[in-house]
Amino acid sequence: MDAGEQTLALTSNGGLPMVIYWGARLPDDEDLAQLAASARHDLTGGMIDQLPALTLSPESGRAFAGQPGLICAEADGTPLHPVFSFDRAEHSACSLSLICSAMGLTLAHRITAQPTGVFTLQTVLEADRDIRLHWLAAPVLPAPQAADTMIDLHGRWVREFHLNHVPWAPGIRMREARTGRSGHEHPPYLILPETGCTNTSGSAFALHYAWSGGHRMVAEELPDGRRQVQFGATTGAETQAKRRFETAELVALHSTIGLNGIAAAFQRDTRDRVVKWPNPARPRPVHYNCWEAIYFDHSLADLSDIADRAAALGAERFVLDDGWFGRRDDDTTSLGDWTIDRTKWPDGLQPLIAHVKSLGMTFGLWFEPEMVNPDSDLFRAHPDWMLGPVDQVTGRHQLVLDLSKPQVRDYLFDAVSAILAGHDIDYIKWDHNRLLPVVDAVQSHGAYDLFDRLRAAHPGVEIESCASGGGRIDAGILARTHRVWLSDCIDAEERLRMQHDAALFLPSCVTGSHVGALHSHTTGRALPMAFRAWVAAQRHFGFEMDPRKISGADAAVLSEVTAWYKANRVWMMAGTILRLDSADPTVTSEMQLAADGGRFVLFAGQNAQTVQILPRPLRLTGLDPAALYRITLRNAGDAPPQSRGPNALKNGPLTLSGRALMGQGILLPVAWPATMWVVEGERL
Ligand code: DGJ
After folding, report:
1. DSSP designation for 667
2. What are phi and psi of 538, to 5 degrees?
3. How far is 105 from 132, CA to CA, in rounded Å?
């Protein structure tokens, strides 16, 4: 099968199918029988007499020496070791189901070539009786042999999306998210670069498990040298004996143009296939979110004043964050009581909404539907609605509601729906601040059901996925939401790095990024407004600082960057973020290239003092070598006093070929730390 520029070829020797080729697209006349023959391994001493195949679900029953793709048992706990026979293949235009059976079990592997250039793969297990499932991998793919390292992700609250470069070695690299969310700790993404791959060149593969409830990843090098990668739901997530189980979708892609080919495909797939936009043509509105300005301290007068100032700075959507409901004066109470706090809002939210609308902004509201505080009317009325053991430790003073219960989902649907129906609201910030006390896939299915019902009832409302920042970012949640809150850290220096690494997986249009206060609320660091504003303008732009506390000079800078974002957002959000290989580790740089290649913007963020005195040339990428481009430094005024020389870009545009820009690169002016150079490019 072909998807975009990649080919996946499989064969079966009468048992479960196996991959014989995954990589760059093969010619249409490739002889597949020869390809299958070429994939056969030798045997040697110390091995069993027939090499157990690395199939789409390696089988313990065939003495496969590594992690099997299926671990299941009879309902009474007796282990099952099925040895599957191939039954049939079912084709449609761009999908394939490969169906095998054994011992009353049917195992189907489904593969779809998506128009966005990725493959999606899923495993479905059915039985003629109730069985217990310990582990079910999505279709298992081989990992490249010509590779020294893999790149996976780790993170924590206020430090999300860090790349781990993990050396391949015999044995297992295992990551498991057991917190009931895709998680800050290790989001379900993996990149498998071949040796020598950079951002801009080389071969790489990538996988993403599209599930929000926690996952397990196994990347294993067998004693015989073969490598496999498995993704599935957290072990133990299926708590009931059943007749049918299925994995989430595994997204698989290959690039021949370096990590940027991975980034481009993930960005395109998320934006054009996964996210279901209420109105795809709507430009991403500039947000104002009041959380860091006022926290729980709500008053109509203050928020109206803030709204006036946010609108004057260019905001187009005003989001009222936590604190409007129950008796929520801090984070110890009221989750679950989704009625307006009349002590803060004696006339309800209508006066604020009317004011916001009169300023030309739309209105968004914060919820955390899946949670309950022990100090809430909901918990007092329904103590049995909580998930997990009675004597569990709370997290942020809260418990989780058991979403497997239809009456809990009905209550939440009615409560959230009533607020949406009664007010002019076009946006929900949907938070999820507590780790789950138990692992259970039913909880995530319940959450998905709640999202789906609310979206069907209020199709014009956009939703942001937030989980203490970036704790729930995956294609499962993005199929139901339209923005992710990448991190509670809006310190621009941290964000620059985080956004750079997250761009391997997430498009600009879904990645929320806000301008914070002068002194960051999560790091204490003070950064200039220009840097804070340009870093936020790299993604879906917004403000979160208190606009009553910024100087006139800072307001002018912010207004100018906001106007720039508005003038450029349509093509930027439809374009591709390409990471540059900066020769200077103190410079984090990317290009955003329009879909038609006709224009680009280059962001070069100086995040520390350079080792050498002069800036190193920065090589561009993704351009037509033969074309000419006019490049203009947008913000030469940000050059520090030490920039005394004749750097040409400070004085006006340059016209250079794509070959020169990509081969030699450009020289930017000297910069202080916390400077973002912005270079606009236009193809002539
Ligand atoms: C955690 C979120 O990440 C913040 O942005 C904010 O919405 C708070 N929760 C509100 O309690």
Report:
1. P
2. -70, -20
3. 12
Of 431, 501, 554, 638, the active-site residue reads 431
Please state the atom number of ligand 1 nearest to the C-alpha of residue 488.
3
Torsional sign, CA 33, 36, 38, 44: negative
- Tens of pLDDT, residue by residue over 216-262, are 999 999 999 999 999 999 999 999 999 999 999 999 999 999 999 99
- Global pTM value: 0.98
Nearest alpha carbon to residue 288 among 206, 375, 389, 362:
362
H or E stretch at 680: strand 675-683
Task: Record the tokens describing residue 567, joined without a space.
Answer: 């003038």
The residue to which tokens 């509670």 are assigned: 488
Give me the helix-helix angle, 300-313 and 552-574, nearest 10°.
Answer: 70
Bridge partners (DSSP) listed for residue 86? 100
What secondary structure letter does DSSP report for 322?
S
Rounded to the nearest angstrom, the distance between the alpha carbon of 543 and the centre of ligand 1 is 15
In 3-state terms the chain splits into helix, strand, coil percentages (rounded to 5) of 25, 30, 45
- Active-site residue flag, 331: no
Q: Residue 642: is it exposed, middle or buried by C-beta count within 10 angstroms (0-12/13-18/19+)?
A: exposed
Whether 130 is catalytic is no
| DSSP letter (8 states) at residue 179 | S
d(CA 253, CA 65): 27
Ligand 1 surroundings by CB, under 6 angstroms: 291, 321-322, 366, 431, 433, 466, 468-469, 485, 488
Give distance in angstroms: CA of 524 to centre of ligand 1: 18
Burial (CB count within 10 angstroms: exposed 0-12, middle 13-18, buried 19+), residue 240: exposed
pLDDT digits (tens, 9 = 90+) for 584-620: 999 999 999 999 999 999 999 999 999 999 999 999 9
